[in-house]
Design a protein that fits this description.
The complex is a heterodimer of chains A (about 110) and B (about 120).
Chain A: E1 9-13, E2 18-23, E3 31-38, E4 45-50, E5 55-56, E6 61-64, E7 70-75, E8 84-92, E9 106-111
Chain B: E1 4-7, E2 10-13, E3 19-25, E4 32-38, E5 45-51, E6 57-58, E7 67-73, E8 76-81, E9 90-97, E10 106-108, E11 112-116
The chains are: A mainly beta (about 110), B mainly beta (about 120).
């Protein structure tokens, strides 16, 4: 998997939007951008993924730069339950490299 | 979302014994399964990837004979920690994906906290 770079930590206020950045300058044409989050003492939870176009689902939005070298996960209204470690991962959409490795992620703190 | 069930959620075993952890995809066929371990305050470390119908591919530094992985069917994978020692104490997590490659998302089990005494 190509490497991703995320800030170690971020803070947000409750009910405000949060923009979590991810840099992936060595992304290849077949790499999908995946986001997962992990709450304390739980397995990770899928958030969203995309290839080129921006994506929206009930949890979040994913904004992908035109050159695909960076992306931003957007939580529209942070709640205390969104406090977690957020991981941005690149995965090859082809049938070759099939693994899924995690970086350090961003620890999001939500203040009431 | 899809459900991946991991069992047990917590286990304590004596040093030298073996422990088996099960990972089941409840409502989809898992073509690919991943096994991770996670130490406190650290990220997930990939141990091995198994594709249905193939032997597991282990990451460098992970002992195949110690961490036995069996992808028995499209809905079940097991991780057996053999001759466990205190340094094997960790949080073990499985993940399942319905297609090879990353066109679909992966779903994770709840994790198993292993304590070897």
């Amino acid at each position: 998997d190509a490497k991703t770079t995320q800030p170690n930590s971020m803070e947000s206020n409750e009910e405000e939007p949060v923009h979590l950045p991810c840099n992936h300058s060595t992304i290849s044409g077949t790499d999908y951008i995946h986001w997962y989050r992990q709450l304390p003492s739980q397995g990770p939870e899928y958030v969203i993924h995309g290839l080129t176009s921006n994506v929206n689902n009930r949890m979040a939005s994913l904004a992908i730069a035109e050159d695909r070298k960076s992306s931003t996960l957007i939580l529209h209204r942070a709640t205390l339950r969104d406090a977690a470690v957020y991981y941005c991962i690149l995965r090859d959409g082809g049938l070759g490299n099939n693994d899924m490795r995690f970086g350090a992620g961003t620890r999001l703190t939500v203040k009431p | 979302g899809a459900v991946v069930s991991q069992h047990p959620s917590r286990v304590i075993c004596k040093s030298g014994t073996s422990v088996k952890i099960e990972c089941r995809s409840l409502d989809f066929q898992a073509t690919t399964m991943f096994w991770y371990r996670q130490f406190p305050k650290q990220s997930l470390m990939l141990m091995a990837t198994s594709n249905e119908g193939s032997k597991a591919t282990y990451e460098q530094g992970v002992e195949k004979d110690k961490f036995l992985i069996n992808h028995a069917s499209l809905t079940l994978s097991t991780l057996t920690v053999t001759s466990a020692h205190p340094e094997d104490s960790s949080f073990y997590i499985c993940s399942a994906s319905s297609t090879r490659g990353s066109r679909s998302e992966a779903f994770f089990g709840q994790g198993t906290r292993l304590t070897v005494v």
